[in-house]
Structures are given as C-alpha cells and as structure tokens.
Amino acid sequence: MTRIKHEAGILSRYSLSGAINTVAGFATIFGLTALGYQPYVANAAGYLVGLVLGFFVSRRFVFRHEGKMSAQGARYLLAFALCFSINLLILRFALQAGIHEMLAQALSTSVYIVAMFLALRFFVFHQRAK
C-alpha cells in the first residue's frame, strides 16, 4: 500500500470515528437530560463518554496500534488537554477580534480537530521505527 493510501485510510477512519464519537456524546447528553439530570452533569458525562470512546476507537480502529495502553492513555490525556486549551485560546482570540460567535466556534473546533489528529498521529499512537 502506498504511503498516500495509508494516510488517506487513517484520515477516513479518523473522520468516521469523529462522527461516531459525536453521536455517542450527544446521545449521552440528551439521554441524561431526558432522564432529569442537570445540564452540567449531562454535558460532563457526554464529554467523558466521548473522551473514553475516542481513545479506544482511535487506538484500535483509526491507528490500529497495539503498544502499552497505560502510556498511550497518559499521552492521550495530555494531547487532549493541550488541544482543548488551544481550542479555548483560539475561541477567546476570535471572539475578542469581533468574529461572530458561531464562526469563532467553527474556527476553534476546526483547529482542535486538526491539532488532535496530529497529536494522535505523531505523539499518542506514533509507530516507532524498528
């Protein structure tokens, strides 16, 4: 398989995993809200489901990586914290620059998606040369 096809496969699986993760997160949020949980609790639970699901789907389906799960989990949490912080900084600067709220959200989310992919590809699930 050529390098380009390999990378295209990873990107395709990453996109699909993002869609699955989004559905699972929203299903959790909406389900808990319908059951009467406070919005903040439902939201936190939805994000927690997304974080955990995202790790396992990325590990097995997107990057098909074996490696040490504990080390990967620690790197995943670090990558998430960094990428989410970047997301919030971009959102803040965009809003301060007068960019419409929805466009600012779209911009910061787009940067998060790309940054998280790069972090997963080259830091969390990086294949070391043998």
From TrEMBL:
It comes from the Bacteria. It is a multi-pass membrane protein. Residues 13-125 form the GtrA/DPMS transmembrane domain. Keywords: Membrane, Transmembrane, Transmembrane helix. Coiled coil: none annotated. One of its GO terms (cellular component) is plasma membrane. InterPro entries: GtrA_CellWall_Glycosyl (IPR051401), GtrA_DPMS_TM (IPR007267). It holds the Pfam family GtrA_DPMS_TM. The chain crosses the membrane at residues 20-38, 44-62, 74-94, 106-124. GO terms for biological process: polysaccharide biosynthetic process. The keyword Membrane applies. It is found in: Membrane. Belongs to the GtrA family. This is GtrA-like protein. It comes from Ferriphaselus amnicola.
